[in-house]
């Protein structure tokens, strides 16, 4: 087997490959794969060339290859990323494609449900963002392209012009999970898992196995799926620095030497630091790491569990795994719980990374006024929760009566579950919020329900909009009493009172949106 030629990887290739099959990435559709199947694109192994290997369709190639195009157009394939995230760069590898590589390529990205069907992705209503304009390709080379886009994507479309073959596609970036779902009710999670947003920032050496393997899902299938350093011939030790998914308190740790039998480390030590916001250049030589697990002997091909041995729980944002003197470790698991501030930071990171359309849709669950949602989406990124809520108040203060009325229409009447206007399509999140806010109705007497229905109709007839009240924490009787008082107001007075109630609702819902309530 010959070896592929190509250039040394760019800086962005240090980031995780979000399209990796090991993370769940898949090529889910292609318009053509006559000579070589689309699934080859994401194979973890390097491309190979078998000089005398043929199929009944032609030369066997380790990649995705389409037939020769005889009509105008181009070929394409759809890729579902293993982890949603912000992209930093792509490598379009045309290894061994010399007289049959595409002249150009372009790449688009979209944000969709992970289980979105191909038909949905190809629907004209799906919003695709061009992250790489049509660019020339070289044959038998790793064509590296940096990507500069702040949004979180789930799927890619690789377009090749006009046809040809691509051996591998690598999509490097930073995973951005929806932390609202990861951290429900403060559940324990693996703070060092790639799928939760952890990153292996750097290491002393990775001659035999790359550092990212430490935080991959599942157990390693072989030594090649672990982190392994070269043999150390002098004093010292090797290390890997992991940025945890979020600031967290550590409960237990697992160091797995699966498959490492004659090359496992003699011992290991784990240290931690709370260093939110500090650059990598400072962390590499920082002297304020605290010992979490003391230097401990390791065994071959074994899962080592540390719980009672922990000398410090945190909070930590980074951990450093030191191995003595060298060797291989297949996985590092750091189980614990996110701190409140850490979880808030990750939830805000998720909100900041949504596309404008996604952000507007999410924000409309807090306030149904489209102007408010679009202005909030445009104001991102928010530095912290305080900035988020301050901006929300400022934007709401700029709204007018038409915006208020639009927001009102997104609410159900008190005692009902559907928005009062057929045109108001409330999201599942907004409906959940309404149900939570009207929890006081569950214990309401029948006569109270009937009275609310009568007064709701009278209120609608007098003012032309529904009765809006910040219902959180209020009983049905309290809401009925407030309704009886407010129905006596003039239309102008009541419109402004209702707008103030909407502002309160917006503030509460924005907190729920961020915290996954």
SS elements, strand count: 22
Strand content: 25-35%
Distance between the termini: 56 Å
Q: Given the C-alpha coordinates, what overall shape results? A: globular
Q: Which percent bin holds the helix content?
A: 25-40%
Number of helices: 12
CATH homology superfamily name of the largest domain: Galactose-binding domain-like
CATH architecture label of the largest domain: Sandwich
Mean pLDDT: 91
Main sheet?
8 strands, antiparallel
CATH third-level topology of the largest domain: Jelly Rolls
Secondary structure class reads: alpha+beta
Low-confidence stretches: 1-7
Mind telling me the CATH class of the largest domain?
Mainly Beta
What radius of gyration results from the CA coordinates? 28 Å
Q: Domain count, please report it.
A: 3
InterPro entries: Allantoicase, Allantoicase_dom, Galactose-bd-like_sf, OHCU_decarboxylase, OHCU_decarboxylase-2, OHCU_decarboxylase_sf
Pathway: Nitrogen metabolism; (S)-allantoin degradation; (S)-ureidoglycolate from allantoate (aminidohydrolase route): step 1/1
Keywords: Hydrolase, Purine metabolism
Enzyme class: hydrolase
């Amino acid at each position: 087997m010959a070896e592929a030629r190509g250039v040394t990887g760019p800086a962005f290739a240090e980031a995780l490959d979000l399209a990796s099959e090991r993370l769940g990435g898949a090529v889910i559709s292609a318009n053509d794969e006559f000579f070589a199947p689309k699934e080859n694109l994401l194979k973890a192994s390097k491309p190979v060339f078998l000089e005398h290997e043929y199929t009944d369709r032609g030369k066997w190639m380790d990649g995705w290859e389409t037939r020769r195009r005889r009509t105008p157009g181009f070929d394409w394939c759809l890729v579902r990323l293993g982890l949603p995230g912000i992209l930093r760069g792509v490598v379009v590898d045309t290894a061994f494609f010399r007289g049959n590589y595409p002249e150009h390529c372009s790449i688009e990205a979209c944000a969709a449900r992970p289980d979105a069907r191909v038909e949905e992705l190809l629907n004209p209503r799906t919003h695709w963002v061009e992250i790489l304009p049509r660019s020339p390709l070289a044959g038998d080379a790793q064509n590296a392209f940096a990507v500069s886009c702040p949004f979180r994507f789930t799927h890619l479309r690789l377009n090749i012009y006009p046809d040809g073959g691509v051996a591998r596609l690598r999509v490097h970036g930073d995973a951005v999970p929806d932390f609202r779902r990861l951290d429900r009710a403060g559940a324990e999670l693996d703070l060092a898992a790639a799928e939760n947003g952890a990153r292996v920032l750097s290491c002393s050496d990775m001659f035999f196995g790359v550092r990212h393997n430490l935080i991959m899902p599942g157990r390693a299938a072989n030594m090649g799926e672990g982190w392994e350093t070269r043999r150390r011939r002098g004093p010292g030790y090797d290390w890997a620095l992991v940025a945890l998914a979020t600031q967290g308190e550590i409960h237990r740790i697992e160091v797995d030497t699966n498959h490492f039998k004659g090359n496992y480390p003699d011992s290991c030590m784990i240290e931690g630091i709370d260093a939110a916001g500090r650059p990598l250049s400072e962390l590499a030589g920082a002297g304020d790491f605290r010992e979490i697990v003391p230097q401990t002997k390791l065994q071959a091909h074994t899962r080592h569990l540390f719980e009672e041995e922990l000398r410090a729980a945190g909070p930590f944002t980074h951990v450093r795994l030191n191995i003595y003197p060298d060797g291989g470790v297949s996985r590092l698991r750091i189980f614990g719980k996110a701190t409140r501030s850490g979880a808030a930071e990750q939830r805000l990171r998720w909100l900041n990374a949504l596309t404008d359309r996604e952000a507007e849709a999410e924000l409309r669950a807090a306030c149904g006024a489209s102007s408010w949602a679009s202005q909030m989406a445009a104001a991102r990124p928010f530095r912290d929760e305080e900035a988020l809520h301050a901006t929300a108040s400022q934007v709401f203060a700029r709204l007018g009566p038409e915006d208020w009325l639009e927001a009102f229409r997104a609410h159900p009447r008190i005692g009902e579950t559907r928005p009062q206007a057929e045109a108001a399509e409330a999201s599942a999140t907004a409906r959940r919020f309404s149900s939570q806010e009207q929890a006081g109705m569950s214990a309401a007497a029948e006569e109270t329900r009937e009275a609310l229905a009568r007064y709701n109709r009278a209120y609608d007839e007098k003012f032309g909009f529904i009765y809006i009240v910040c219902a959180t924490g209020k009983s049905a009787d309290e809401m009925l009493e407030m309704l009886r008082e407010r129905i006596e107001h003039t239309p102008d007075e009541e419109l402004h009172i209702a707008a103030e109630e909407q502002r309160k609702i917006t503030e509460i819902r924005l907190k729920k949106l961020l915290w996954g309530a």
